[in-house]
């Protein structure tokens, strides 16, 4: 697959845990609202109506019974005492001027309606002495019956309590459930991002739910197959390149033994082709050695300085005693390719090293630059930005391709950008894991 065609993973905001909790939280709120609505329609409202009807019936019956009792005996006081003891009702013929009850109370309004329907006359509800008083006009006189007020149920408060508690329960429960799923997925994502096709990768643990076990097993199998494929490809390249050296040497010897009468231009073309073949074979062998190289610990500054000639200035930013664990041969080949490429297009190529966290190395030139749409294509084998450039001056066409492959094999990243004022900035960035010392200085942006 070409580098420009590789699918890029687009970052998305919100983790699986956060998104799941959000969905489940809103589901809990919807369930709570539905439950409160159903409870209000099928439970609370019928119970409130029945309670108001029963209360109205008791008040009217008590008042009518009191009126029918003779007032010249002790029957009425005894009845009043019995109603207070049994039903917490206070029957009084002493009419008091009390404030009206809360007109916005739904239960009071419903009770007032039921009392009016039973008596056939308007009834007023009053409040006083922490009691609710029904002021009723009866055929035998006017009475005020006091009783303990009942507060109507507040569906809003109930909905808030159920909704909040339900959301908390759902979030806490989903945290443990989704975390069990998200953690293996996070490990899988990290393993996929870190996998470079090299041998000896750490396989994912195949545990957890069946789907995650299948995912981990599939990834492990795929990683092993890719590692074996890349290893076989590298071995094949090394074998073929090495074996080609022998026929090339024989061809060179045959050219040396040609008689003097052979056209010199023909001999020169043959020698040029042999040199080009030898260069391609050399690049391939250097790539094979670099891809299989084991990292070693070095001091970064003196090593980079040893790779550059006197004509390539270096600007060091950060800790000069920084030690890293790096594949030196592969890094040398990457630096040589980038510096040679910069020097080929401009004479003032320079290197800026940001020895911070992370480490970044910029190879900057003042050449014509590379168009944005071509910056991925230049890493393809044998791709030439200038089609008219001759092969004699354009190199083997594998320099940047080998650079990208070596960087990918060792977990580095190479990218091309614009240098202010014109030119190209080729940047190699390294993961923090290559640093072996404890001192990490803050990175600086290189002056380009």
CATH class of the largest domain: Alpha Beta
Tell me about the largest β-sheet.
5 strands, mixed
CATH architecture of the largest domain: 2-Layer Sandwich
Shape: rod-shaped
N/C terminus separation:
33 Å
> Can you give the mean pLDDT?
79
Given the helix and strand composition, which structural class is it?
alpha+beta
Enumerate the spans where pLDDT stays under 50 for 5 or more consecutive residues. Answer: 1-12, 387-393, 438-448
Q: Strand fraction band?
A: 5-15%
CATH topology of the largest domain: Heat Shock Protein 90
CATH level-4 homologous superfamily of the largest domain: Histidine kinase-like ATPase, C-terminal domain
Q: How many beta-strand elements?
A: 11
Strand order of the largest sheet: 6-8-9-11-10
Q: Please report the number of helical segments.
A: 10
**Helix/strand order, N-terminal first:** HHEHEEEHHHEHEEHEEHHEE
* Helical percentage: 40-55%
Could you explain how this protein is built, in words?
- The chain is an alpha+beta fold.
- The protein folds into three domains: 18-156, 2-Layer Sandwich (Beta-Lactamase); 195-292, Helix Hairpins; 294-434, Heat Shock Protein 90.
- Helices cover 53% and strands 14% of the residues.
- The strands form three sheets. The protein has a five-stranded mixed sheet.
- It is rod-shaped, with a radius of gyration of 45 Å.
- Residues 1-12, 387-393 and 438-448 have low confidence and may be disordered.
């Amino acid at each position: 697959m070409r580098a420009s065609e590789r699918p890029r993973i687009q970052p998305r905001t919100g983790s699986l845990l956060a998104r799941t909790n959000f969905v489940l939280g809103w589901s809990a709120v919807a369930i709570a609202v539905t439950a409160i609505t159903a409870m209000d329609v099928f439970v609370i409202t019928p119970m409130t109506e029945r309670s108001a009807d029963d209360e109205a019936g008791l008040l009217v019956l008590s008042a009518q019974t009191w009126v029918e009792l003779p007032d010249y005996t002790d029957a009425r006081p005894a009845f009043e005492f019995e109603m207070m003891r049994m039903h917490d009702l206070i029957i009084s013929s002493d009419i008091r001027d009390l404030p009206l009850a809360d007109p916005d109370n739904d239960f009071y309004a419903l009770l007032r309606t039921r009392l009016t329907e039973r008596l056939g006359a308007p009834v007023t509800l009053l409040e006083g002495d922490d009691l609710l008083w029904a002021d009723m006009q009866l055929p035998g006189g006017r009475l005020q019956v006091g009783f303990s007020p009942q507060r109507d149920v507040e569906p809003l408060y109930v909905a808030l309590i159920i909704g909040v508690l339900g959301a908390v329960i759902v979030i806490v429960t989903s945290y443990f459930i989704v975390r069990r799923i998200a953690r293996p997925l996070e490990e899988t994502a990290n393993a996929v991002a870190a996998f470079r096709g090299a041998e000896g990768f750490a396989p994912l643990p195949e545990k957890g739910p069946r789907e995650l076990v299948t995912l981990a097993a599939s990834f492990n199998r795929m990683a092993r197959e890719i590692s074996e494929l890349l290893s076989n490809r590298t071995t094949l390249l090394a074998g073929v390149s090495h074996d080609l050296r022998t026929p090339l040497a024989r061809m060179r010897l045959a050219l040396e033994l040609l008689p003097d009468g052979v056209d010199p231009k023909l001999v020169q073309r043959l020698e040029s082709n042999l040199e080009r073949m030898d260069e391609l074979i050399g690049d391939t062998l250097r790539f094979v050695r670099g891809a299989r190289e084991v990292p070693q610990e070095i001091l970064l500054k003196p090593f980079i300085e040893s790779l550059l000639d006197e004509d390539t200035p270096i600007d060091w930013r950060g800790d000069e005693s920084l030690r890293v664990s790096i594949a030196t041969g592969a890094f040398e080949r990457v630096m040589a390719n980038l510096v040679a490429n910069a020097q080929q297009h401009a004479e003032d190529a320079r290197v800026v090293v940001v020895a911070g966290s992370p480490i970044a190395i910029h190879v900057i030139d003042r050449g014509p630059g590379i168009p944005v749409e071509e910056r991925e294509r230049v890493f393809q084998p044998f791709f030439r930005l200038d089609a008219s450039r001759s092969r004699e001056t354009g190199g083997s066409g594998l320099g940047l391709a080998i650079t990208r492959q070596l960087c990918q094999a060792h977990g580095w990243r190479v990218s091309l950008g614009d240098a202010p004022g014109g030119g190209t900035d080729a940047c190699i960035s390294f993961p923090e894991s290559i640093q072996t010392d404890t001192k990490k200085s803050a990175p600086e942006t290189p002056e380009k």
